[in-house]
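One-letter codes give the sequence; backbone shape is given numerically. An example follows:

. . .
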Amino acid sequence: MGNLDRQLNQAIKDGDVSTVQTALKQGACVERAGDQPFSPLYNAVISFCGEMEQLQIIQILLDQGADPNRIVATHSNLVMAIRRCQLGIVELLLRYGASTSHQHNPSIDGSLLDLAHHLGRSEIVELLSNWINQEPN
C-alpha cells in the first residue's frame, strides 16, 4: 500500500477530515484496501472517531466514488452500520445506493430488516421499512 493510502487509512481512524480530503486530492485510492483487508469506506464505518467526523468522512468517500455495496470479509458496509446501531450512517449509505437485497449482504441469514429487528434497532427497522417500501419492484 502506498504512503497516501496509509495516510488516508490513518486519517480515517483518527477522524481527521482535513487529512482525508488532502490524501484523496493527492491521489489516495478511495477503493484500495492495499495490504489491509478493509476498504477505506469500511474502515470509516467501523471507526471509533466522533460521530460528526465519521459521517463527514463517509460522505467524502462516497462523493469520491467509494462503492457502498462492496463486500469486505463477508460483510457489507450496511450490515456493519446496522450491527453498530449507526442510524445516520445507514441512511447515508442508502442514499448513496447501498443495496438492501440479500445478494449484497451475504453474511446474514434473512433480510436486513430481520437483522435490525433481531438486534433491537427499532429506528433502523423503521428507516429500512420506509426505504424498502419506496424502492421500485
The radius of gyration is 15 Å.
